Fold this sequence. Notes:
Largest sheet: 9 strands, mixed
Radius of gyration: 23 Å
Shape: globular
Helix content: 25-40%
Number of strands: 21
Distance between the termini: 57 Å
Amino acid sequence: MHHFAYRNGVLHCEDVSLEAVARELGTPAYVYSDATLRRHYSVLADAFANRNVLIAYAVKANSNLGVIATLAEMGAGADVVSGGELMKAMEAGVPANRIVFSGVAKTAEEMKIGLTRGIHQFNVESLPELHRLSKIASEMGKRAPIAFRVNPHVEAGGHAHISTGSAEHKFGIAWHEADAFYDEASRLPGIDPVGIAVHIGSQIMRVEQFRAAWEKVVALVRRLRDRGFAISRVDFGGGLGVPYKDGEDPDSPLVYANQARDVLGSLDVQLIFEPGRLIAGNAGVLISKVEYIKERDGRTFVILDAGMNDLMRPALYSAYHEVLPVRTPALGATRSPVDLVGPICESTDRFAKDRSMPPLHEGDLVAFMTAGAYGATLSSQYNSRPLVAEALVRGDACVVVRRRPTFDEMIALERAPDWIASG
């Protein structure tokens, strides 16, 4: 469910017209719904009521401070994969003891930040990482609470590029290495092995796909406890999908929670989840303006001012986004196939091919739906295009939570070398 709907022929985010947002921010622009963010978090949190659960929002899905702060206010923790995400989460109000640090390439400096701040857990993904963390923690006089991210050799996900659980992927330690790695961790100074983590992929529509991985993790917990390890946390990761098009009906967070309870049974652990897309995906749209309509060789190209640098998902893994006109088309308007493309000088700068659309004209606005996750956070300044502005809407209030930089601000980060003669 989301809070985007037509009112008097114009698409709104809650009580704010997207036309009004476009006038204020220009286009392209991302718009997020506060009510949708809050509802999605609440549904998941309520599904795990009366259970020791840390819902650590996956900051990589949408790292805007306004979004993180909204969720922090509701009690969310944060799953981070960089020092920058860690600092952003804390700036937005997430307590350090509710932050989980994931990722395969943590630097020494990032480890020091996490140890200094006292984060909840490091999800360790290799033996070299474990040894580095031990060395740094010992030098600082700290103990690092860790969970190994185990690779259960279970593959799932909506696309090969977002599946992470098989042997060929870079993530996690091999399943057959787990016992030896926990033995090693128990011998190292500065390391406190407290948990087990797993994450097999993203945009998974049926919770049954998680079961095999979760069951293997629970069995590993019991085996390690039998060997004397004080494993008190299980991190089941994230990955539950959201609908991007009509007809898609992913399992609900309640079904997800019920399966987790069933798999855990009587096992007494803190349960950690890392939802990102599930919370932010349907909470955001990208507004774009039609610049030109180009007819050539029997094809119609609708050229938008948004490009693949603003919304990378279609170019990255052929992702589908529903595209709606901000103004409802005339009654009975004929739809026809068009290619929705952007201004970037790349053939992959195409959002949709032969998409059935109502008539569009120069200056019309369209909205890319379900763009709240992996939209702005994947954006870049490719072709020297400024980053997109972002707004957060609550009721009839609209706040700019990231302004679009000026060309001067974008250029100010760079300089020509001194040996170049100035004009």
